[in-house]
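dude i think i finally got it to work??
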Amino acid sequence: MARLPPEDAVSQPPRRTIFFDRRELGAILSAYGRGVAQGDWKDYAMDALSDRALFSIYRRASENPLYQIEKRPELANRQGAWAILSAQGMVLRRGRDLATLLRFFDRKRFALIGE
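look at this
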């Protein structure tokens, strides 16, 4: 006699996680690399969650992240799937295009933010 799995195991759909694709991750790591080369950033972390993917940028490994680059696909048709969040969780920039969003970290603009 074959055993069937418990009813609750069959009824739940598999959990979906959101993450960056190869092109997106390449663009993010390129921007991160420029920050490391300038001596501004020292560490990063990536999180794949059920509703969003996060790339966190740190000045030192023991601190809270300075910035988080967030991908939320459910917001793609409304505000844009991409956002840059501050250390306090405020949205600094939101958009539909990752390359345009990453221009936030250009040296000229970045220098103005630190002043």
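The chain has one domain: 15-114.
im so relieved honestly
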